Amino acid sequence: MLEARDLRVVYPARGGRAPALAVDGVNLQVRPGEIVALIGESGCGKSTLARALTGLVAPTSGQVRYQGEPLDPRRMRAFRKQVQLVLQDPGGALNPRQNVFDAVAEGPRLHGERAGLRDRVHTALARAGLRPPEDYVRRHPHELSGGQQQRVVIAGALALNPAVIVADEPVASLDASVRGEILKLLLSLRDQLGLSALVVSHDLGLAWNIADRVAVMYLGRIVETGTVEDVLLRPRHPYTRALLSVLPESGERIVLTGEPPDPTRVPGGCRFHPRCPVRTTGCDTVDLPILPAADAVACPEVTP
Fold first, then answer.
1. β 221-227/213-218 pair status
2. Which of 24, 54, 204, 299 has its CA 20 to 30 A from that of 119?
3. Where is the ABC transporter domain (predicted)?
4. C-beta of residue 143 within 8 angstroms of C-beta of residue 96
5. In the predicted structure, residue 92 carries a pLDDT above the cut 90
């Protein structure tokens, strides 16, 4: 449904700093009816990749493909109906002066789809779990809880009947008690409507609960990808192992030194080597290839 091919996004130099390499040669697929979790630390390029996949950031090189066809600027309007972005801060995503009806109806109105607008808005709200929709359409964002605000944002995406949702940290700003409800909603939308989804998060628990496949990102690159069971139960890359080690049941804690490198100063060789607890000679000069057969990264310390 949605694919990145050798996607690269470089932000131009500013204030005397070098250009920032936000996304570097990413290959990623979201298949029909599939939920893919994109996991990584803050600053690794996840949100930039999400925005590039939804047409909000222009790639420096590489391609975004939808249903097998390269994204054409002439077809961008139709593409944006089919691929919707859900932002992480529902309070910031909603206009405080708009009521719920206008917030959900904004997309169809922008695309000139005003026929049957009331029924479309009510259906989207009901699918997002706000029932009966008549109780919510005249409310404003300040009258809603955080979970209800996020459901309104999701309803705004559903109002255009998309095929793919790209959700950027959809539960990061919500209480723990509400997160499960939103994740359950994403699963039900996949099952009932056949939606595909890319869910961006730093939460490994989210990946385990809703994803079919996981892609782990570090400093602009996908370092490991595979099924949920392969990546979370049998991680092969040292970075993935370090992320998983923070879970209570993981056993020994792996503490990484320092912060993720600055994207304006990407280290040579394997870009994880400055923080890697198992680095060996040559890691600073030789980058790690992706092994297509194993769908994971080769590392001197990891047995294929």
1. antiparallel
2. 54
3. 2-244
4. no
5. no
